[in-house]
């Protein structure tokens, strides 16, 4: 599956057909990777993606391995299944 391109930020609408929206607020979005997109940090498929436009973000540690990617305007947290990346 293609790797998400976050070179100029991340726009969920470019990939919407491959994600299931799990939760959305004004500044955060939680998505499920239904298309098997690859993580831009490690190049392996990820399960869920949390996108935050907040300047500061607190959250509990996700289960299993995860990757963080920072764009100019967003923090992207990619969670991988057990045993990955």
TrEMBL record:
Keywords: Cell projection, Cilium, Flagellum
Pfam families: DUF7385
InterPro entries with a match to the protein in the record: DUF7385
Protein name (database record): Flagella cluster protein
Record organism: Halapricum hydrolyticum
């Amino acid at each position: 599956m293609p790797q998400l391109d976050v070179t100029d930020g991340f726009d969920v609408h470019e990939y919407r057909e491959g994600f299931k929206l799990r939760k959305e607020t004004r500044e955060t979005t939680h998505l499920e990777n239904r298309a098997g997109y690859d993580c831009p940090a490690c190049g392996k498929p990820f399960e869920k993606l949390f996108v935050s436009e907040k300047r500061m973000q607190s959250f509990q540690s996700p289960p299993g391995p995860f990757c963080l990617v920072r764009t100019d305007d967003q923090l992207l947290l990619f969670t991988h299944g057990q045993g990955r990346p």
